Predict the structure of Methionyl-tRNA formyltransferase.
Amino acid sequence: MGDFAKCGGKLRPLKIVYAGTPEFAKIILSSILQTAHQVVLVMTQPDRPSGRGLKIHPSPVKEVALDKNIPLLQPTSLKLDGKYPQEASEAKSILEQLDFDVMVVAAYGLILPKWLLALAESKSQLGCINVHASLLPRWRGAAPIHRAIWSGDVETGTCIMKMAEGLDTGPIIAQDRLNIQTFDTTQTLHDRLASQGARLLNETLNDVAHGKEFQLINQSEIGVTYAQKILKEEALIDWSQDAQIINRQIRALNPGPVAFTHSLDVLYKFWLSEDISDVVTQHRSATPGEILEINELGIEIACGKGVLRILELQKAGSKRATSKQFIQTNSFHVGQKFN
């Protein structure tokens, strides 16, 4: 562990290496920067093409680092024997020469090799501290928020864990639970989990700075699930499924890649919905994907079982709109089908 000698009765703030890439990691980083601790280096993935026109954009984490004048490292890989050994070797050299106390990782997106885990272990009892948006061992992997909503979980949470070589297999340092609300989307749940994770992490960092001895809890081998990366083809709606499953799909894929369907060869994205099977009876003669009703509350569609009400949608080439706004300028009719 680093030297936490007292200075004027106060413990010296930690020097932190931070590794993260998307918006979730940006929120965590921004929270750290509001504390007394110092981020001495930020690691994030290389700039990628995104948005319309696929222009090259920096990651959200890089934007914060540039704004705060924090040194940046953007290796394509950290594997010394991988496809980019020179980049990995340069990163290793920089990190080995850097004076830091602890490494924090949140949704970085690159595998941390053994040499980096060992280097972090030499700095702190906790090694690489990872912020993960699920109650491990449930939903290890890339898309824990999406998968929790899509699977109908009633709760999730945040784990602060010590990183190990396996995929999200390390022991738990701290965790907190969070209820998944009926109207949660991946976006709304993401924001609440990021806020929760930032709080938990800062508490952990303060405990590290005060020299606390942690009692790590090994993850159970029971209940392990993997949150595979969301594929674009998963966003196509299968109207033969139950309304509650399609509703969860739509909410899980908001804000991306967004659930979609077709009608009369036109693509429609569905952003928000609700399962109204308890209050609306599906017509026995209706086929899955058929519009049953159009009113101020939304567009009601028959499913394999139950009825789904679309609240927000988007026609290809148009802007996202509420159903009420949409039907004022678009001609849907009862009996029209989606497929």
Q: What stands out?
A: Confidence is low (pLDDT under 50) at residues 1-9. The chain has two domains: 6-227, 232-329. The longest helix spans residues 186-209.
